[in-house]
Structures are given as structure tokens and as C-alpha cells.
Amino acid sequence: MRSFLFFLLGIFGIVALWFVLCAIYPPAIIPPPRSVALALRDVVADGFFLADLHATFWRVVGSFLVSLLIGTVLGILAGLRKDLLDTLHPVMVLAESAPPVAWLVIAILLFGMGSAPSFMVGLSAAVPIFFFNTVSAVKGLDRDLIEMAVAYRVGRFRLFGSVYLPGILLSSVAASSSSLSVIWRVVIMAEAFTAARGFGPRLWGAYLYSEANVVYAYIVLIVLLGFTLEYGLIRPGVNWLQTKLRIERNGP
After folding, report:
1. Could you list the residue ranges that cross the membrane (predicted)?
2. Predicted confidence (pLDDT) at residue 28 exceeds the cutoff of 80
3. DSSP letters along 95-148, please?
């Protein structure tokens, strides 16, 4: 209850700051909340809303799932083999350090316009997150337990399922929240310049036509959907999986 009150306090602070800025800047720069609310209503009622929602979501979810697979698999292999870690580490640092707009330009040169650049930008942002979290998880496993399992000749599949997998899953779900929020932002940024459908091009088009209230309406919509993903899907799923894995690890 206390955390929820502070959450509401943060939202109230944002709204209060918005009203203050409205008194300082003209509506062409910062429109009032009522104007944005009406524009948001029109955006949701627009006949293209569901198509834009579908286009953005499948790019975000697709990038997330592929990043989870690639980053986790490479992280497991690199955590088990130091030579592979030494090889992949600078690659992941490069992917993580380069700004999303750089990957966007490269993706446009390689694949042209469309959904592919959004996927590439999403992968470049999220794969390193899953990779480094998985490497840390593998290196943090109980070595005594692994050595004991090897001494008792526990099969490789059973060893992986009972020792490696729980620790890796906990690391992956912990990285899911941060990676999804990053993907959500960079994919919408990328699709604004490369796609015909989605929230990105709609937001960019409203800016080009100087429709400030529509711009802010899409920003509010994107933030609300991000909140829905985080607090309605990712966090409950992460908490459930962490609880389940800890129960299975500690026993009834």
C-alpha cells in the first residue's frame, strides 16, 4: 500500500509539472492535458489504431523473444568456455556501446525500409543484456554442487535441468524487464523512420504536421502501453517464475 501511494505521488508530480509547463510554454510546444486527452481519444478511435498496435507489438515481442534466445544461448556457452567468452565479450560491448541510431543506419543500408531495421535495432539493444546476465548466472552457480554431481556421474541433461537451468532462468527473467523496456523504446524510434505502420511513424508524422496535441497523445499512449507490459505482464510473470523456481530449489 505504501509503495502504491508513492507511485501515485510520482504520477501526481508529473501531472503537476505538466500544468506548470503549460503556463510557461505556448500550446504549440506543450499543449494542455485536456487537449491531449481529446487527441488520445481520437487516436484510439481511429480506424488504423489496431493495425498500428499490431505492427508495433509484433516487432517488440519478436525482438524480445529472439534476443532472449540468442543472448541466453550464447551466454550459457560463453559462461562454460572462457575462450568463447573472450571472443564474444568485445562483440557484445560493441553492440551495447554503439547508439541505436548507428545500428538503424546500418540496418537501412543492409535491409532497406520495413520491419527489418526495427528488429536489428531491438536485437542490438537487448541481446547484450541477456548475454551478460546469463554469463554472470553461469559463473555464479554452485561449483561444489556441480562437482558433486559429476563425481556421482549425474547425466548431463539431468545436471543441466536441475542445476544450470534454474539459475539461468532466474537471471533471464530478471533481465526481461530492463530488456523489454529498452526494446520498446528503440523499436518505436526505429520504425518511425523505416515503417509505414506502427506508433513510431504515427508519432513522427504528427510531429511533421505540427500537431503537438497528437504528438503528446501518442507519447502518453506509448507510455501507458509500456506500463501495461511492465506491470501487467512482465513483473507478474517474473515474480511467479522466481517464486516457483525458489520453491522447487528449496523444496516444500
Report:
1. 57-80, 92-113, 119-138, 159-184, 215-234
2. yes
3. HHHS-HHHHHHHHHHHH-SSSHHHHHHHHHHHHHHHHHHHHHHHHTS-HHHHHH
**pTM of the shown model:** 0.81
Rounded to whole angstroms, the Cα distance separating 219 from 211 reads 13
| Cβ(110)–Cβ(167) below 8 Å | no
Per residue in 84-123, pLDDT tens?
Answer: 999 999 999 998 888 889 999 999 999 988 889 999 999 9
Burial class (CB in 10 A: 0-12, 13-18, 19+), 213: buried
Helix (H) or strand (E) holding 239: helix 235-250
pLDDT in tens, 173-205: 777 777 888 898 899 999 999 988 999 999 999
Q: Which of 178, 154, 145 is nearest to 249 (CA)?
A: 145
